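Exercise 7b. Backbone tokens:
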């Protein structure tokens, strides 16, 4: 089974690229990459939320604002897609991710219903953006329901429109299937449910490649539940790092 791992941390303490602190943090992720190499199917680091744009849908009206979907101290900083036979295997890997062990940090594990990627290496992530879908859960978020099937048809249509601009995508199981992992004083602390206890949860994601204007225009066509939103964040280009 494939799992999306969402990495959360305190942005106030985020290190800047080119600093010793950033290099030390990257060394931790490199070590994790070596540890979980056989399980990693995808992943990326994100620029800070000040570079985010949010697209909200309300009664047929589309509104675009600067900034993230939710103003929180603990922001999404990146993600992995891991493949394993059992959730326990994923938890054992995730406990070694730097975001899991950092003060105030955590990693949320969500099983994927479907996943696809054409990204071959880090160079493919240049000029890429992560688009996450947010909103209250409905029947459309439950696999094998008529509402889910209708949503799949809408996303299939979006996929035909976007074409090769889509580099990666995934749909998630409902938030009730989430497991949040933290490490306190060397001890792994697990909690059922997503990292953020709000009614608006991440329901799926796309990675889109293009200029900011191209991606923003296309992201406005991503299907979401009524009252839902899409947040787009630029992915860090680490291919030269």
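Sequence design result:
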């Amino acid at each position: 089974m494939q799992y999306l791992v969402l990495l959360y941390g305190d942005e106030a303490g985020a290190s800047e690229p080119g600093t010793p602190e950033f290099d030390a943090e990257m060394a931790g992720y490199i070590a994790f990459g070596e540890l979980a190499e056989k399980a990693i199917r995808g992943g990326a680091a994100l620029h800070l939320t000040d570079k985010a744009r949010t697209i909200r849908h309300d009664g047929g009206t589309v509104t675009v604002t600067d900034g993230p979907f939710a103003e929180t101290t603990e922001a999404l900083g990146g993600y992995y897609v891991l493949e394993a036979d059992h959730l326990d295997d994923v938890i054992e890997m995730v406990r070694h991710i730097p975001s899991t062990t950092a003060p105030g940090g955590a990693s949320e594990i969500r099983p994927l219903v479907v996943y696809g990627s054409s990204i071959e290496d880090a160079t493919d992530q240049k000029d890429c953006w992560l688009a996450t879908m947010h909103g209250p859960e409905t029947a459309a978020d439950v696999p094998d329901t008529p509402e889910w099937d209708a949503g799949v048809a809408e996303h299939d249509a979006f996929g035909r429109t976007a074409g090769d601009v889509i580099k990666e995508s995934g749909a998630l199981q409902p938030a009730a299937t989430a497991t949040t992992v933290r490490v306190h004083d060397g001890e792994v602390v697990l909690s059922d449910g997503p990292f953020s206890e709000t009614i608006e949860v991440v329901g799926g994601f796309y990675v889109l490649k293009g200029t900011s204007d191209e991606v923003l225009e296309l992201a406005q066509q991503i299907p979401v539940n009524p009252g839902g939103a899409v947040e787009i964040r630029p992915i860090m280009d680490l291919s030269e790092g």
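Instructor comment: The chain is about 20% helix and 40% strand. The two ends are 31 Å apart (CA to CA).
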